[in-house]
Design brief:
Elements (H helix, E strand, L loop, with lengths): L1 H13 L4 H18 L6 H10 L6 H14 L2 H13 L5 H17 L2 H18 L4 H12 L9 H10 L3 H7 L1 H19 L11 H27 L4 H19 L8 H31 L2 H11 L4 H16 L4 H18 L4 H16 L6 H9 L5 H24 L2 H9 L2
Helix pairs in contact: 1-2, 2-14, 3-14, 4-13, 4-14, 5-6, 5-7, 5-12, 6-7, 6-8, 6-11, 6-12, 7-8, 7-19, 8-19, 8-20, 9-17, 10-21, 11-20, 12-13, 14-17, 15-17, 16-17, 16-18, 17-18, 18-20
């Protein structure tokens, strides 16, 4: 019966039904046929209310709104400009500037798509014009954009905390050092492949560097405000979202003046669309999860994993392979909401740190953003580079995908990379 239940979900997804409706429809079918007929439907309003009745989730629309304000206000353009002025004379300097701009904007917006769009529009034509290999440039921006869900603030981390009950503040802190590590690996790669192939660029005059730094200082202060406020305990992650949104509104409307009141309806519309999509998936996943719980599927799987007497690292490897396969067909939020209620008890039962596993899972979600056929960042890069083929983008992202896999292996060998900072700020 369980097999049929899961098969129905897969068939609906393969037929192209949106994830939220696929989850919801499968859950309704399970409630009708496996639990109690139409009488069980009385639980649906309660499940929907309970799934969204969490103060932590209030941060999601705020971070989405902040991301839209910064994206529309072109704050990322200034970040790339300051990186270019200060780093272009170094080996692979423009590539380094692009990755640094992606990392900083990721720490501001918390959105991979927004990061790829904002930085890519400026960086891709500039780097190609300076002689950088086109495929490498496309892969660099697509992969650099994925840093948006690892470096805090991170919507997947908020959802993870909401489902598991883990501290969102700790989850945010857990992503900082791995985010820096992955950024450094991207930088090292672009330096090694570009240093000998490209002539050094002339350094920008100090007057231009200082001007670019002054112009972008308001944007650069935003991640310090948000992460620093959480780190010092000045406010919670949800309060940090509100503070960051208000700050981004002020700097784009009144300091940079890159936004006007006419832009506000479009910003709100995009925020509502994105937020509605995420929350609809959450409700569908909770209905689906309700049936899983009634059927005791997570418990059965946990008992099965414990009874295998297999090395726990082999089970973790299997979980990573599962997430990688799902990443080829589903987007980040859907994967987390579908799999985490099942995987989390197994991870805890095997003795793995749940904060550490959150980072492992998010890096897998980064891979999902650049793996075909539905990798979101792949389509974003193709959208902002009309003369680019998908095969060029795919060849470009392969080295960076391998670096992400290497990061997962490093994290498995040295789990303290993820847990050190959360324990320090406890």
């Amino acid at each position: 019966m369980t097999f049929v239940f899961v098969l129905v979900l897969l068939v609906l997804l393969l037929f192209g039904l949106p994830v939220a409706f696929s989850l919801g429809a499968t859950g309704l079918a399970g409630m009708y046929f496996m639990i109690g007929g139409t009488k069980s439907f009385s639980q649906i309003p309660l499940i929907a209310y309970k799934s969204l009745d969490d103060f932590v989730l209030a941060a999601i629309p705020l971070y989405i709104l902040m991301s839209q304000i910064l994206l529309t206000g072109k704050v990322g353009n200034d970040l790339y400009e300051v990186g270019s002025k200060w780093l272009r004379h170094l080996p692979g300097g423009l590539g380094v500037a692009t990755i640094m701009a992606c990392a900083v904007f990721a720490a501001i917006a918390g959105s991979s798509v927004a990061t790829a769009v904002t930085i890519g529009v400026v960086a891709i034509p500039e780097m190609i014009a300076r002689g950088y290999d086109k495929k490498t440039v496309l892969g660099l921006v697509a992969a650099g954009g994925t840093l948006g869900i690892l470096i805090p603030p991170s919507i997947p981390m908020i959802i993870y905390g909401s489902i598991t009950g883990e501290s969102v503040g700790k989850l945010f802190m857990a992503g900082v050092v791995p985010g820096i590590l992955l950024t450094a690996m991207f930088i090292l790669f672009i330096v090694l492949i570009s240093a000998k192939k490209l002539p050094p660029q002339p350094p920008a005059p100090w007057s231009e560097r200082i001007t670019a730094l002054r112009k972008s200082m308001w944007g650069l202060f935003l991640p310090i405000l948000v992460i620093g406020g959480i780190y010092t305990g000045a406010f919670t992650p949800t309060e940090a979202a509100a503070v960051g949104t208000l700050y981004s509104f002020i700097i784009t409307f009144f300091i940079y003046r890159t936004l006007s009141w006419r832009d506000l309806p479009g910003i709100i519309k995009e925020t509502v669309k994105t937020n509605a999509m995420i929350l609809a998936i959450m409700i569908g996943a909770m209905i689906f999860g309700y049936v899983l719980t009634i059927l005791r599927i997570p418990q059965h799987l946990t008992e099965f994993a414990a009874g295998l007497n297999a090395n726990r690292w082999l089970i973790l490897l299997s979980i990573n392979i599962l997430l990688l396969i799902l990443g080829c067909f589903l987007e980040t939020v859907s994967i987390i909401l579908i799999t985490l209620p099942i995987l989390f008890p197994i991870i805890v039962n095997l003795g793995f740190d749940p904060i550490w596993f959150a980072v492992i899972m998010v890096i897998n979600m980064e891979l999902a953003l650049i793996t075909p056929p539905v990798g979101m960042n792949l389509f974003v890069i193709q959208g902002i580079s009309p003369r680019t083929t998908m095969s060029e983008i795919l060849r470009g992202v392969v080295p960076f995908a391998l670096l992400m896999v290497a990061t997962i292996l490093i994290m498995a060998y040295l789990p303290g990379i993820a847990t050190w900072l959360p324990n320090l700020v406890k």
